[in-house]
Prior knowledge:
alpha/beta, binds pyridoxal-5'-phosphate
Amino acid sequence: MPPSFEEYRKFFPVTKTGTYLNHAAISPISTPVVEAINSALSGRSAGDIDTFQMMLDNKSKLKNNISRLIHTNPANIAIIGNTSEGFNWLVNGLSWQKGDRILLVKDEFPSNVYPFLNLKSQGVEIDFVPTRRGMIYFDDIEKCITSRTRLLSISFVEFFSGFRNDLEKIGQLCESKDILFSVDGIQGLGAIPMDVSAAKIDFLSNGGHKWLMSPMGCGFMYVRPELRENLKPAFAGWLSVKDSWNFTDYNLDFLDDSRRFEIGTPNFLGIVGAQAATKLLVKAGPENIFPHILSLGDQLIDNLEKIGMRYQGSQEKAHRSGIYTFKADRVEELFNYLKNNQVHTALRLDAVRISPHFYNQSEEIARVIDLCKDFYHN
Ligand SMILES: Cc1ncc(COP(=O)(O)O)c(C=O)c1O
């Protein structure tokens, strides 16, 4: 039996006013996060005011939490604003030759596309792995690799279909072909266990406001130590150097660890919130969270398909995630009907996307199913 996480529901007041099933867009902020941010704000308003050191301590704690979620050393993590920013650090820190090729995937969210397209002016060519009904076949990835492919960037979980890529298998392939392996983790991490070393990931970029349940504008990137040696910091700032507090020395000697990619005063309130949010997730444990989410997903698929809604994800459990997308007749009306009944999902393209997190319960899923049945008069 997967755990029920009943005891965590008290941290999510949203459970009292409705059924929130839209974590693939944005997560509700839990009460420990609200309390942590309020306390930091009070300190900035009428406490010590200069809370810089306290905030730095929070940044270290946040990195510790993240390191436990992705299984790496905190020194390999840099705190950044969002997923897009991370990929920009990557593409602008590498040197490119005319004719180098980058492999991306069709139908990915654009944050994992535009930073790479921006290299076209340097003569870099972009290839796209085709998708088949939202699924990505390993053989297709393999076929798209050329002798000039230098980097592959892919999502842990695809934002529309919820297809979960087999990172370990793809990482193995990239290593065997000497290709850099870059991952957008935002639609998986927090809901699904991840091990960056086992998957041989060179670079991971991850915004915080979806499955990590953190404030907006506070994410992180992981840079594998071997890559860090070759990734020139595309930007430099006073906090990225060794002697930060020696203000007028101007010794541009970058810190050895990933703090070299943190250039100035960061989003400290975001960090305080993300620290509290990831602490909760570490405690709940992705290895417990994921089976619970998968069982909610099974419940959705089994019941909604029976009333003619068409599941858009993989038939294979190994490729499932926290995202369950269904095409259906009058889908926009259905989405509004659910919303009017305080069930929050997302309308994406011509489908309704349902994305439960760990505090959601089987009874809530049953309610969604009942509402869908009512809507279609089943
Ligand atoms: C796969 C994926 N990557 C990234 C993002 C967000 O990118 P950013 O963190 O740059 O806003 C989203 C959704 O908003 C997404 O679905």
